[in-house]
Each structure stands twice: as structure tokens, then as C-alpha cells.
Amino acid sequence: PDLRCASSLAEGGQRLGRGCCDGAEVEGRRAPARTTARTGVPGEAMASWFRSQDMEFISMIVSEDAAHSCIRDIGKLGCVQFMDLNGELTPFQRRYVSGVKRCDEMERKLRFFIAEMEKFGIGAKSTTSVEVFLGEHEDQTMSSMAMLEKLETHLEEYEAQLLEFNKFHEKISTEFNEKLEHREVLEKSKDFFALEFSDERVSMPGSATPSPLHVDTGNSSTPLLDADMGMPVNQGFLDPDLMRFSQVCGVVAEADRSRFERALFRSTRGNCYVRFTPVDTELKDPNSGEVVEKCVFILFFKSASIETKINRICDAFSARRYPVPDLDDGGKAVAQAILLLEEELKDSNVILTKNVEARQRICEELSHQVERWMWTVVQEKAVFHTLNCLKADVTGMLRGQGWVVKEQKPIVEGVVTRSHEDMGLVGASMLDVLPERVWPTPPTSFPLNDFTYPFQEFVNTYGVPRYKEANPALFTAVTFPFLFGIMYGDIGHGTCLALAGAYLVATYKEDPKRGEMMGGIYSARYMIFMMGCFAVYAGFIYNDFFSLPLDLFKSSYKWSSDEPVSGAEANATCSYGDADCVYPFGVDPAWHVSDNELLFFNSMKMKMSVILGIIQMCLGITLKGMNAWYFNEMLDFYFEFLPMVAFGFGLFGYMIIAIFVKWSIDWDHRMYLGTCNEDNKHWPACASPDDDGYDLDKLCPLGYGGSSGGCQPPNLITTLINIMLSPGSVDEPMYPGQTGVQTFVLLLAFLAVPVLLVGKPLMIRYRNRAEGSTAEHQELMHGDEEGAVSGHGGGSGEHSDGDEHDEHNFSEIMIH
Fold this sequence. Notes:
Elements: H1 42-50, E1 55-63, H2 67-75, E2 80-82, H3 97-119, H4 130-138, H5 144-196, E3 202-203, E4 210-211, E5 214-216, E6 221-223, E7 246-253, H6 257-268, E8 273-278, E9 283-284, E10 291-292, E11 294-301, H7 304-316, E12 320-322, H8 332-367, H9 370-387, E13 397-405, H10 409-422, E14 430-433, H11 453-460, H12 473-487, H13 491-507, H14 516-523, H15 525-542, E15 557-559, E16 570-572, H16 597-630, H17 634-664, H18 667-673, H19 696-699, H20 716-725, H21 738-782, H22 785-793, H23 795-815
Antiparallel strand pairs: 1-13, 1-14, 2-13, 3-4, 5-6, 7-11, 7-12, 8-11, 9-10, 15-16
């Protein structure tokens, strides 16, 4: 079914109206809602976690006047999921689309307020919790629409103030930056001319005023005009006014400097001279508030057409141009302009400061209300979304259908009745359970708490269990931390992880401002703590403390020297099989310094991993069988579960049995029986150097067959591989009749494979054909004679189509 989510979620993962049409999944499944309340006694809670809570499919009719408050109160229970009865309508054709749009607009304004607060480093101040917030709304006397209108008015007022202040701030900031840039241009221009032309000037013949017509190329100053040109002065070629260069000063972004310089050179064909100087004053962008690096440029040119090109290039690069007074008066005009700009900058700075203080004051006021307002808007938006799922069959009444937790149904009925009584509409509502024959697929609902939530989320990443299906999360709560400890086994590292988990548990508190990553870490705090504890436990088994052994108990080995050095031998302090030789807990520390340490630990950990992995696999097969039996799916039970048991328990279970059998045998005693000694019945003939006919299989009195007769420990990997490669023969048996047992296990596994592959598809095909034949027979028996004749007339063609349809279905079943 098409289910729409109408549970209210505030920022930071806080749940407001749990369960009002809570998250749709395929086939009606949904991720279980996270609740912190315990349901019933611990045993009942554990049972409801193993198989989801009982659900009932209800039909509810409410008055349109009381529908809003009714849905809002139901949402606080977290136990109802509504179906969408208006699936044929687009979102813009829904009844309450205007309410959703209003909430969207208010949510946009709240996000705008939060963004403005972040500019000043102000966070939303949490004045209450979600539970207290919901409790306060239960006693309210103001209607929901009146509350929304009042809230909308407040938001519009604050938004208008902030927009006005922001617009004014942007305008003043732009003017302030322009004054700063103009001051920098004047100062840099003054310094430039004082530096470049203080020492060398070109004196025009007949003129007492020197002319600054030389260019600094970086290495030397080369005059543009030579004083000794040999031209008569009275011809007017060296008139200072005619030979004076034009200049353009301005500011351009440092990032555009190189492109700006190339564009000038190419457009003027090198007929301009430009110098750059970085701006020392910090300039901020009026919109973003980020610091922008800029530089002052001074351009010299000698053509009106070049000036036009320069102006266009400056406009293209957003380079502001500023006027610079003539420097012929010794810089007095420039100094006066700088003083005037300083006064204007002081006034602008005062205005900017007042503007920032006013904006900050408004943001401080908003910080105490924005969280509560956001919760209100999100809750109301969720209510309107849920109301859009209800159908208006009768004027003034709304009808809804959905799922409710069976145990919570009386509470839901009370909420619906009370909502109508508060509006003076007694008897205007109805809630009834629909017959099971019209039920769609029920959703899955697990009552979770802070401990069980992370394990359920971990299982949901692979798939949400269907309704009443055995929930693997119940077993994952133990197996996952335990298997992690087996993998991560170290006392030191496990202690660090356990302490980190304990710190998370001790410091946890509801914080909506917590980020997504930290929120996820805190939600898994109990899982992390258990993982650390199991890692410590496995570390004691491995006897590893930061990869160093601990001699917690007295070692059963004694070294030939006082200090264990390379090549030293360790001898057991007691005889083999003596209880005193068994290390009390974990691995004897002597193994960590032995030459065959790696061989010993690899063998131990590999066998342990195989045993635990197969046990977990068999647990999954068992759960599948329990589900098939619970849902009365006999095809799955007989043609999937039982063959899986035969294959998995038989082949892989035998592997575990072989490991334990090898561990339980005293191989020192068996190898003694297979050697030529006085206790052997072949003594003293076997000790004769001339007789080489006494092999191990002949000396071993057990007579289990193979090359060892049962007196030599086998290589289990080779044994298990030979089950498939060499059926019917065992080279190094461990017990009598091992060949027959392994042959039986292999045949059982081979027989289970075809049953797994084609057993269920063949049965489904047989059922479909049987049902099709029965339906056709009933149609012929109840049809009229003409229909029967026409049916027989086209029988061959129809039969052919039916066969193709059956084959198509069978192929799909085989694939899936």
C-alpha cells in the first residue's frame, strides 16, 4: 500500500508525533519506530521484539472540525499508521495542501533565522524537551489554526526586520568598502608617484616644470622622450600638455589580477603601462562577510580609444575606478581627499556597528524561541500530511484506514472520543476493526529502547523483517558484540573501547544540536560498551594485553634457563593429562614466546572461527524453519528448510564434530600404540633392521584403516577436502566407520542440492496447473451451452497460450 509518513520529526532526530502514518516500505513494511518506553514486563517486551507486535486494521470516521486535534493527539501515541486513501490525487489536489504550504513557508523562515543566527555564532537554546513540549500542547485552549496564524504573524515580523536590516547592512557595507578602496587608491597613487618620479624627471626645453614621462621597467628608468632630440622647441612637438599621459586608478580582485593584466595587454596591444599594489586594509564581501583580497592598479595610456577599451575591461572584471586629484600641487589635494574619506569612514563604521548590534539583538531573541517554533511547525506539517491521507466521502466527515498496535487500540479510541468531546461533537466519530479478509500486508512494529535500537538498525540495513517474522536483532544483540570481541580480542584495546562506551553512556543526554555523526555514535553507546567488554573477555582467552602476554596464573612450563632466550627449551612441570597442567583461563603465556607461536594460534583461532561461524549459520537456518512453520508455509519448510538442514548441518556440522573429536583424543597414547615398543604385539619382530614390512597401519592395533590405522592425528583440512575429492576413502581415520559416515554425509548433501533448486518451483507449478484445471472445469460446468461450445472450438489455441504462460511463470520461479 501507498503509505505516507506523517510522524513529526524535529531537528536532531527528536520524534514529536510518533506513529501518525509512520514511514512506508515495500509490501507494507516499515522501519520500527524508536521508542524509549518499555511495554509490559521484560518477558513480554522480549517476546514482542522477537516477533513484532500484534496489529489490527482499523477504519476511522471523524468530524472534519475535530480531525486536526484528533490526528495530532493520535500522533503523540506512536502506535498508528494510516494508509493513503487519496492515491489517485496529486499532491496539489489534496484537501489540506494549503496548510502544508503554509508550514513549508514558515519552515523556510525558521531556516532563514537559523542561518542568520549562525552568522553571529548563536545557537538555538534548548529551553525544554520534546516530551514537555507535547505535554504543554495538551492543555492549550487556542485552536490550531489560530496558533498557526499567531506564529505566522510573529515570523513575518521578525523576517521583515531582519530583511530590512540586512538590506541596509549590505548597502552601508558596499559604500564603506568603496570608501576604503578609494582611500587605498589615493594613498597608493600618492606613494607610487612619490617613489617613481621623485629622483628623475624629464625637463622640457623652454619649460621650468619637469614632466614625468619615464617608465619603470623593473631594471632601469628609461625616458619616453630624450631631452637631446635635436628638435626645435618653437615647432611645438614637446609641448607638456600635448605629451601628458592619461591615467586610470582603481581596485580589482587579486584572483583576477593576471587575467585582468593579460586582457589589458591584448586589447591595447601593449600601449598601456600598469602597476599593481596589494591592498593592506581588510575588505569583506557585503553578502557573504568573507575577506576578499584586492589590489590597487594604476594605468597610463595615451589615447581616447584606449581609454574606452580600458573602461570596458574594468567593467567586465568588476574593477571599480576611482578619481585621483592632480599631483601637480605637491599632493595637497590628495591629502585633503584622504582626510575627507576618513571622516566619512568613521560615520559609516558607527552606522555599521549599530546595524550589527540590532541584528545580533534580534538573533538573541530568536535563539530562545526558534527551537520551539520549529517543533510546532514540523508537528503541524505532519498533521496536515496525515489529514491528506484521509478521504472526504461525506460532507463534513473524513474517513481513514490504517494499522494500530492491538494493545493500544483502546487508548486510540479514547483519544478520538475525547478530541470530539472537547469540540462539542459527542458521537460524531467511529473507530472499528475491519475483517481480516480485507487486510493488506501488516507493517512491522517493534517496541525499542535505547539499548535495542542500534541492533535493530543494524539488522534493518539488510532488510526489515516482515510482520510476525522472527527478528534476528534479538540474537544480534549478543552475537554481534561477541563475534567482534573474538575478532578484536585484546585486553588493552578492549578496555579502551569499553571505557569509551562507558563514557558515552555516562555523558548521554538529549541534545538536538548534536551532529549526525555524534548522534549515531551516542545511539550505539551500549553496543560499543558491549563490544569492548567482549573484546576484553576474548583478550583474556588469547592472553593478549596490547599484544603482550600476561602471566596472571602460574605457567605450566619451566624454561631451561632463568630467562627465556632464543633457543631455550621449556619443559612441562607435570605429566600430560594432569589437571594441574591446565592453565586456569586462556592460553598459557609460554606459547607467546615459543617458536611455533604462529602455528599454534593460527590453528586455534581458525578452528574457533569455523565453529562459531557454522553455529551462526545454523542459527539462521533454524530461524528460517521457525518462520516457515509459524506461517504454515509447508513448501518452504519441506523443500527449503529440511534440505538446508541436510546440507548445512550434515556437511558443515560434521566439520565441527570432526574438530571436537580430534581435540578429545589422546594422540600421544595413540601414537605410542603405533610405534614399535615392548607393549606392541609385533615386538620384537618389528625392531629387526632386516624387516621393513611393519608400517604404521600394521603396527597400530586399532585397525581403523587408511595409512595410519587411527594412530596418527590427521590434517582436518585435507580430510574435509577429500570428502569431496576422494569419497569412500579416508587416509587418516580418527574413529571406526569414518568412511561410511563421510560417504553418507556426502550423499545427503548431494541429494539436498536438487531439492533446493527445483523442489519448490515444481510444486508451485503443479499447484498452479491444478488450480487452473479446477477453475476451467467450474467455468465449463456453470457456463451456457454456447459458451461451452465456443470454448471447445478454440481449445487448442487457448491450451497453447496456457502452456506458454505456465512455462513463463515456472522460469520466473526458477530464477527467483
